[in-house]
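W.,

You were right to be curious about this one. When I first looked at the sequence I had no strong expectations either way, so I just let the prediction run and decided to look at it fresh. Below is the sequence, 367 residues in total, followed by the output.
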Amino acid sequence: MKFICNKTELSEALGNVSRAVSQKSTIPALEGIKIAVSENTVELTAYNLEMGIRTSINASTDGSGEFVVSPRLFSEFTRRMSGEEISFDIDENLLINISCSATECSFPAMSATEFPELPTVDSGRSFTVKQNVLKSMINMTSYAASMNESKPVLTGELFDIEDGSFNMVAIDGFRLAIRNETTECPEKYHFVVPKKALLEVSTLIKDESDKMCTIFTNDRHIIFEIGRVFVISRLLEGNFHNYKLSIPNGFKTEVIISKREFSTCLERCSLLIDDKNKAPIRCEVGDGAVKISCKTGIGRINDSISADISGETVTIGFNNKLILEALRAAEGDKVRIRFNGAMKVIEILPLESESFIFLIMPIQLKN
């Protein structure tokens, strides 16, 4: 079989699918990329048994068939060719001969017989969301997904769609992140997607793309269709935390503060905190200012930021890293921070809506 294609298009396709190549597998074929040649199309697939990525490019083809290639070798030879069009000739012994401009090279491929088929999902159970919206939802919540494998369901993110509302939720026991969007989807969905798959989806979406992403799902798998790229992932089993019960009904203190100024202040505090020198941040809210202090074996810091404050004064302790990561994920120049006392969750919201809600558990301060 033979095919001729554009070098740039092939390189981009290889870069996309290589994210799902298995690093170490008892099935050698899974450590490669499957290439399937058919009429005017070359399809590329990688699969690590948990997540798969498939895409295709246009090509001038002669014959059809499948083979598996080394991702590194195939990608590097493709990328380093001198011309714009690359010609591939695969003989009956699966020897790949590549030619491009004045350059020729060859290397062996593997049979595709041991490469498993990707899971399939009924196309009737699907919904759509704008690609840039999906990317924003992932980027604003993924930081809060658990890293602890003892409860695997919390290492993913909940997709909760009901009554025209789409919530994406992540929680790790110390913090919770919710990103909300309205949706025209009439169906009810409730499933958990691994964080790793969502981060790959976010990476594959171009920043300003307002095209639609179609999402197909069943009880075991999910497929994201991003243009000509398909990301297939297993879903996580188990009972996800009932996050709605964690959202406070009201607040005693509300602070409107510059996200940049607050973040910069906390970054200065971070200079005094490391694995050997841990301490909570002490935060005193009142009289038009948020006063921050921290003391460790490295040194001490006292700082103050002016803010719009309403309600009761409060003194509270928190983990510096957890607040910083929430602030970095938040959109907008200013945020609302709400308190219900020294030992109740801290709530971070946007200035004029509730498109996201971030909750952080406080730390009890020593007198």
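Here's what jumped out at me. DSSP finds six helices and 26 strands in the chain. And, maybe more interesting for your project: Helices lie at 7-17, 71-80, 131-141, 195-204, 259-270, 320-329.

Coffee later to discuss?

I.
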